[in-house]
Design goal:
This protein has 843 residues and is α+β, with helices and mostly antiparallel strands. Helices cover 42% and strands 25% of the residues. It is built from 30 helices and 32 strands. The strands form 6 sheets. Strands 23-24-26-27-28-29-30-31 form an 8-stranded mixed β-barrel. Strands 2-1-5-4-3 form a 5-stranded antiparallel sheet. A hairpin with a 5-residue loop joins strand 23 and strand 24. Helix 17 packs antiparallel against helix 18. The protein is flat and about 130 Å long. The C terminus is likely disordered.
Length: 843
């Protein structure tokens, strides 16, 4: 029998799959019935069996067998799409067979062991997170070894540093207990160690390291005893309940104060139980109603007979209505006394469900007979005095008010503003002061009005009107001048800083989210500020200047304020010229894509390419978005530029594929307006997008708008088309884990500001590690932007980042430079062994 047939028979009988390899890794012999390899399409080479991440190490071992073999490593097998990962221990060695050195490999399946280890680690992390989030400190005391363990939270409760040794002497520790609690605490510990369930939890005070007393809720139990039943090991948790104790003491103090207040106010207190029919009165109630304290008070009994017959039906209906809805209410009625006289009684009641589930009502009654008599006297006098002029004055006031106020916001309208502004300005100038005008325009109001309806838009205008009135000074004038525009006029003392502070405060207040009918509405505000000081000022011109300043604020990015300046008009002229050029550039197809590659962090293989918009200006050359994007947004043509970049990028992507370039995918930016466009999916239906080849990049701040159902629907349909979602500039906005789960992006791009100082800053590396861990736990790949140096590459590789993008590896390139760049692979010449020179960024 030949040697090869003997080896084959041996391979089939071995419990661990064994292969014979050629010197280049080709498989010469493989067991026919090895289940590990059944699903793998390529069994001709060890590199077809093992995942590509492990190829470099195996190649190095095979290239130098005398020094590198035997070789052993934990590796992952190559997997078919959809199959679970399989982990093995790969061992490669040499053996002389028939006078010839041959290579053999064994693959020991450790998948189950790996999964058990991961499951155990996950459970441990989950319990640790639960304890930390609950604010519980864990302690473990071993009397046999004299060891005492306290978790970080346990130490924080007492102010003990993490590097400090813990007190293990019981007597010395007992001296830290508050003197008033010491005897009780020691008894509780004794009973707790004895296993008495009544003492499993107890409370006491312990001295903090800074000298104050901390209330602690201790839960513990003996988990190990010696042969005599004596406790050997005790384990438990501590919680800081100082705040709760302070609250209990406050409640006690308030209760005492309430008792004194009731006695001073001469009000009677009652509690009615509608389930049992029993009513409990205090002494003052009996006194008010002139009923003997021996009488039993029941629901529907004696009290009802004392209520005046003309009032009883109204009172009972009022009680029934509010008790059914469990809302507090007030009542006034007449009570008939035993001598036939009656008193006016005022009541305030609160229905509630007690802790025992019974429906009850607590309330107070007080005698207001004298007050009612005086009130009636005054009302009659007042009615007689005002009767002659009331109707005329009411009509006059209503007509004047309606003519000068906005009926939605109840603020002065434009007509009122124009009528009073000259007089306001003259008075200010005469007093030696000036006039300041803040012209407020809401950002994103039209989007809310269009997507959530007119009702929501009206509610937001009312909200803004109330907010402006609240933040304006008493002497200021606030007007709603139409649509989503408001004007605030203020007396100006020459200090523009005060106007700036007011504008900044208004912007912050307006940006706060508003909840309405299940939606979260978010607005912004742009504010133009103009002021004048002196008798020669033109009041009308001040309003016009504020309007010009507002335009400048919106042009510079919205959610900001700008002061009017003499240079503003020149800027407006230049902006108009640039706007015309942008519209002409769209007609001439002057916007072109540049491409910047991203790379696999470990192998530096190309992992994808980002599409960047550039303007090929006929006179100024290549312009980056910072030169034209803001004006393009004002013109509402960013969506057109995005669509143009998508079409050209797909065309170039197909050309690279035809040229044999291995570029896995392309990503293109999508603006907020385009994402919120109801017609987005219809416009994409005419674009030939290869499934899985295109990703849309969204700024972190875009996808958090929970109120916009159009954007959410578009995201869902994009995924259905095979278009992945990427989040750009992650870490600079306010994203939450819930938001990430809702959007389900495939990639997070960490903003370059978080990457820039990573090689020097341990804190920055911890932050990056946290982001990478979040991405890994959610199945999201993480791209680091701003990789400028070899040091960045080394640090990010160690942190486990998935992809790298930055000038250290590739600058943005025009389409014609892509093929030469990929073929020459200049990024692989980057020296990763030692820090390299810092590369200066350029657009």
């Amino acid at each position: 029998m030949s040697v090869n047939r003997v080896l084959s028979a041996i391979f089939e009988s071995l419990p661990v799959p064994t292969l014979e390899l050629g010197k280049d890794g080709q498989v010469l012999q493989i067991p026919e019935h090895a289940p590990l390899f059944t699903a793998l399409p390529d069994k001709t080479s060890i590199f077809g069996l093992v995942h590509k991440d492990h190829h470099p190490a195996i190649k190095a071992a095979l290239a130098n067998p005398e020094q590198q073999l035997p070789f052993s490593a934990d590796v992952r097998l190559a997997t078919v799409d959809g199959a679970q990962d399989v982990f093995v221990v790969l061992s490669i060695g040499r053996m002389e067979v028939d006078g010839e050195q041959r290579l053999f490999a064994q693959l020991t399946d450790v998948t189950s062991q790996r999964r058990r280890e991961n499951a155990i680690a996950f459970r441990e992390k989950r319990w640790d997170s639960a304890l930390v989030s609950a604010g519980l400190g864990v302690w473990d005391q071993n009397f046999a070894t004299g060891e005492m363990y306290g978790s970080d939270i346990w130490r924080q409760i007492r102010g003990i540093r993490n590097d400090s040794e813990l007190e293990t002497d019981f007597e010395r520790w007992a001296q830290k207990i508050h003197p008033d609690d010491r005897e009780h605490t020691l008894h509780c510990i004794e009973r707790q160690n004895a296993g008495d369930p009544a003492y499993a939890v107890f409370e006491y005070r312990e001295r903090h390291e800074d000298g104050r007393w901390v209330w602690i809720e201790c839960r513990g139990a003996c988990v190990e005893r010696d042969e005599n039943g004596k406790p050997v090991r005790i384990v438990g948790t501590d919680a800081d309940i100082s705040q709760r104790k302070e609250t209990e003491h406050q409640v006690e103090r308030i209760s005492r104060s309430l008792k004194l207040a009731l006695e001073a106010s001469q009000v009677g207190v009652f509690v009615a139980n509608f389930d049992t029919g029993i009513t409990v009165w205090d002494d003052r109630m009996y006194e008010i109603m002139q009923i003997e304290r021996s009488e039993t008070i029941a629901v529907g009994g004696l009290w009802e007979t004392r209520v005046h017959p003309d009032d009883i039906e109204r009172v009972e209906k009022n009680v029934e209505y509010h008790v059914a809805r469990m809302i507090p209410f007030s009542e006034e009625y007449r009570a008939i006394m035993p001598d036939g006289s009656y008193r006016y009684i005022r009541a305030r009641s609160l229905p509630f469900i007690d802790s025992d589930g019974q429906k009850k009502m607590i309330g107070v009654n007080w005698d207001v007979t004298a007050d009612v008599a005086l009130r009636n006297e005054l009302e009659r006098a007042k009615t007689l005095a005002e009767a002659r002029n009331r109707e005329l004055e009411t009509a006059k006031t209503r007509i004047e008010y309606n003519a000068t106020h906005d009926d939605l916001t109840d603020l002065p309208n434009r007509r009122y503003l124009d009528a009073m502004f000259d007089g306001f300005a003259r008075e200010s100038f005469a007093d030696g002061k000036g006039v300041g005008v803040l012209h407020v325009d809401l950002d994103r109001f039209k989007q809310i009005n269009d997507t959530l309806g007119r009702k929501t838009g009206d509610m937001m205008l009312k909200h803004i009107a109330a907010l402006l009135k609240k933040n304006a000074r008493n002497a200021d004038f606030v007007a709603h001048v139409g649509g989503d525009e408001f004007v605030v006029i203020s007396r100006f003392s020459g200090n523009q800083r005060k106007l700036a502070l007011m504008a900044d405060r208004l912007i912050k207040e307006i940006r706060k989210p508003v909840h309405f009918e299940g939606h979260v509405c978010r607005l912004g505000a742009s504010i133009g500020i103009a002021s004048s000081y002196g008798l020669t000022s033109d009041a009308k011109q001040i309003l016009l200047n504020a309007d010009i300043a507002l335009y400048n604020a919106k042009k510079r990015g919205r959610n900001r304020y700008e002061f009017f300046s003499a240079d503003t008009q020149d800027i407006l002229i230049n902006t108009k010229r640039m706007s015309d050029d942008i519209l002409l550039a769209l007609e001439r197809d002057e916007f072109i894509p540049f491409y910047q590659f991203r790379f696999d962090a470990q192998t530096l293989d190309i992992a994808g390419v980002e599409t960047l918009a550039r303007w090929q200006h006929p006179e100024k050359g290549i312009l980056t978005p910072d030169r034209f994007l803001a004006i393009a947004e004002d013109l509402d043509v960013v969506s057109s530029i995005d669509a143009m970049m998508l079409d050209k990028a797909i065309k170039d992507f197909k050309a690279w594929d035809m040229a044999g370039l291995d570029v896995p995918n392309i990503s293109v930016n999508v603006s907020s307006r385009r994402l919120h466009d109801p017609g987005l999916m219809k416009s994409l239906s005419n674009v030939d997008i290869p499934p899985g080849s295109v990703s849309f990049e969204l700024l972190e701040s875009i996808f958090l708008d929970d109120s916009d159902e159009v954007a959410i629907s578009n995201l869902r349909q994009l995924r259905d088309m095979g278009i992945d979602i990427e989040i750009d500039d992650f870490g600079t906005g306010h994203a939450s884990i819930v938001s990430l789960l809702k959007v389900s992006p495939s990639v997070l791009k960490v903003d370059r500001q978080l990457v820039r100082t990573a090689p020097q800053s341990s804190e920055q590396r911890k932050l990056l590690t946290s982001i990478i861990d979040i991405g890994r736990s959610l199945g999201i790949k993480v791209v680091a932007e701003g990789v400028e140096t070899a040091a960045h590459v080394r640090v990010l590789q160690k942190l486990g980042c998935d992809y790298l993008q930055g000038y250290a590896l590739c600058r943005p390139l025009p389409q014609q430079a892509i093929i030469p760049f990929v073929q020459s692979q200049p990024w692989r010449q980057l020296n990763l062994e030692s820090p390299g020179p810092t590369r200066k960024r350029a657009f």
